[in-house]
Amino acid sequence: MKIAFLLHNVYALGGTVRTTLNLAAALAQHGGHDVTVVSLSRHRDAPRFPVDPRITLVPLVDLRSGSPDTEDPAYGRPSRDYPADEKRYGQYTLLHDQRVRAYLEERCDADVVIGTRPGLNVYLSLWGPKQALRIAQEHLRHDAHGGALRRTLARHYRALDALVTVTEEDAQVYRERMRLPGVRILCVPNIVPPASVPPSDGTSKIIAAAGRLAPGKRYDLLLEAFAAVSAKHPDWELRIYGGGAEEPRLRELVDRYRLRGRARLMGTVSPIEPEFARASIVASASDQESFGMTLVEAMRCGVPVVSTDAPLGPAEIITDGVDGRLVPVGNASALAETLMDLVEDRPARLAMGAAALLSAHRYDPEPIVARYEALFAGLAATQHRRAWQKLRARAGTRLHSHTRR
């Protein structure tokens, strides 16, 4: 089967880039599929993440210095078709519209085309090959999109075959709030490959955290909680991996809580698994998570995770008290108390780490590939029935509109 992914920029860093490449590689390796990743933009010579050699890369708009694309008049004009309320709208031009339309309508011979962000899913709804199954992936939560964007997506997603979320809770939100007759809405979690390093032995006195240094990740809350832990256990250390706009503020908080030398901002590190394997606990204080990739990466390293019970991902990843702990969102004292419990109870820490390592097998490539293959087969088998559902829904909408007049 030929499968094509539409990706914003495969040459950049980012969670969606990494998870798309993981899935593309697994479909090629374990499913034997012919996989292409279509990158809407290209700003450097080679991707930052490793790309399986079985994957074909197709860049559409070349942004590198000296590229003729940047001199094209269409590049200087804003996109007409990418949704204006989507976060990346400013990075899309008329040239992107033209290139992706030409690719989808003239060059694409895929059996399945998968969009990986809302604006690309709109492109797919407009120009996706009629013979192909057209699938939208949502890597962000439904409620992370503004109302105007949700209304735009509701119109366009009706033309697709399926909408895939990364958590079951988010899939249920879409089922309840976005009427999409004939479109299957389901959850398939991200692939998180096994770690390439030995698991943690749970003996280090290190708590680790990783992710963008952004307000929603609440590293300020984590530092507050760790200050309480450190007051009682000054030999423990907090290491925060990542970069972002919050770094100056977080450095001020390290000084304010007198944690210099015990709480360290380590910068961006990739891959993160070797650092997690050096830790005995991984912590997440986020206000919200669309999936929680770092939680599973920590579990892959045999490390228990203490996470806020944020919508939507952590509770679907962590079984509280078995392979990690969940604490209320925004509660520094609860986070501190739970971290302290694991710091002081090594047997519990080791038992949870071992359980986490086993639990993480849910995210192995093989079962996720099997779920996608079952989706493809199911969509193909129900194509005519779903087309009738869409026609009836459109007819009902027109009748309702006519009656109201």
Would you give an account of this structure?
By secondary structure, the chain is of the alpha/beta class. It has 2 domains: 2-191 and 369-398, Glycogen Phosphorylase B (Rossmann fold); 206-363, Glycogen Phosphorylase B (Rossmann fold, 3-Layer(aba) Sandwich), CATH 3.40.50.2000. 42% of the residues lie in helices and 17% in strands. Helix 1 packs across helix 13, helix 6 (219-232) runs parallel beside helix 7 and helix 9 (293-300) crosses helix 12. It starts with a strand and ends with a helix.
Helix and strand layout, with pairings?
Layout: E1 2-7, H1 15-31, E2 34-42, E3 56-62, H2 94-107, E4 112-115, H3 118-127, E5 133-138, H4 147-157, E6 162-165, H5 168-177, E7 184-187, E8 206-210, H6 219-232, E9 237-241, H7 247-256, E10 263-267, H8 273-277, E11 281-284, H9 293-300, E12 305-308, H10 314-317, E13 324-327, H11 332-344, H12 346-359, H13 365-381, H14 383-404
Parallel strand pairs: 1-2, 1-4, 2-3, 4-5, 5-6, 6-7, 8-9, 8-11, 9-10, 11-12, 12-13
Specify the CATH homologous superfamily of the largest domain.
Glycogen Phosphorylase B
String of helices and strands: EHEEHEHEHEHEEHEHEHEHEHEHHHH
CATH architecture tag of the largest domain: 3-Layer(aba) Sandwich
CATH fold name of the largest domain: Rossmann fold
Structural class: alpha/beta
